[in-house]
Write a structure and sequence with these properties.
alpha+beta; GIY-YIG endonuclease; 6-stranded mixed sheet; 2 helices; 37% strand; globular
Length: 106
């Protein structure tokens, strides 16, 4: 089974059918730019999304995942400066995956 931490990116499909690519947070420089974050892991049935979040400061994404009790799971980020797009993508992904944890840190 491929480890998610070594994945170049993950692609999530929103309820609208739009696709969104996220980079592993471990492979990116901490950014104070706004964006979206996802905690996900592999399972026999495929990718399981555990948390979907939106923030005005991606450098806080690790802390947000830890506070949600998911600091030991793979974290992925997506730079998305435009607030309207960021919020729409967040809602689209939440609608598709219905994750157990949702964060709005915007």
């Amino acid at each position: 089974m491929k480890r998610l931490e070594t994945t170049i990116f993950i692609e999530l499909k929103g309820a609208s059918g739009a696709r969104y690519r996220f980079l592993p947070a471990s492979q990116t420089q901490p950014s104070v730019m706004a964006g979206n974050l996802v905690v996900a892991e592999h399972a026999p049935e495929g990718l399981v999304v555990l948390l979907v979040g939106v923030t005005n400061d991606l450098s806080r994404s690790q802390r947000l995942a830890r506070e949600a009790g998911l600091g030991d799971k793979p974290l992925f980020v997506r730079l998305n400066v435009a607030r309207r797009s960021r919020d729409q993508e967040h809602e689209d992904i939440v609608a598709q995956y219905a994750p157990p944890k949702v964060i709005d840190d915007a």
